[in-house]
């Protein structure tokens, strides 16, 4: 074996070892219900290249038990919910209303993964007269929510 191929083999092996030590994706599997997914952009994360950089936080950050709930909106893509400084058994939830009256017709949630303290939902389409809101839910109970936007 030549010196060059041995160096290449060792480098590749070292890179594989480093990759094996890195954690996999930090996103838990999303849950959804109602008619979530009925509108464009639903089922995609806000990191989709089409939407990146278009979101802004709407409304004040809400707090419960030291955890933070934030609601983000883009007039191009819709909205998503994010929780921070969260404990286990909590979820960020985005609820969407079809007609703007604030009745939950569809929702999506994202739980906090072990070892991290935040989660964010996939997008909800609250464009064209629809509204949505963010909810922080822990152990099956809603702790705090934003208004409908």
3D structure, described in words:
The protein has one helix at 3-21; strands at residues 31-34, 56-57, 62-64, 67-74, 78-84, 90-97, 106-111, 119-120, 131-138, 141-145. It is mainly beta and 149 residues long. β6 and β7 form a beta hairpin. The chain is globular. The model is unreliable at 1-26 (pLDDT under 50).
Quantity of strands, as a count: 10
Element order, helices and strands? Answer: HEEEEEEEEEE
Q: What is the C-alpha radius of gyration, as a whole number of Å?
A: 20 Å
Q: Percent of residues in beta strands?
A: 35-45%
Helix content: 10-25%
Helix-and-strand structural type: mainly beta
Report the major sheet: 5 strands, antiparallel
Q: Given the structure, what is the number of helices? A: 1
Sequence-ordered SSE layout with sheet pairings:
Elements: H1 3-21, E1 31-34, E2 56-57, E3 62-64, E4 67-74, E5 78-84, E6 90-97, E7 106-111, E8 119-120, E9 131-138, E10 141-145
Antiparallel strand pairs: 1-7, 2-4, 3-4, 4-5, 5-8, 6-7, 6-9, 9-10
List keywords for this structure.
mainly beta, five-stranded antiparallel β-sheet, 149 residues, disordered N terminus, 1 helix, single chain
Question: Briefly, what is this?
Answer:
The protein is mostly beta strands. It is built from one helix and ten strands. It is globular and about 35 Å long.
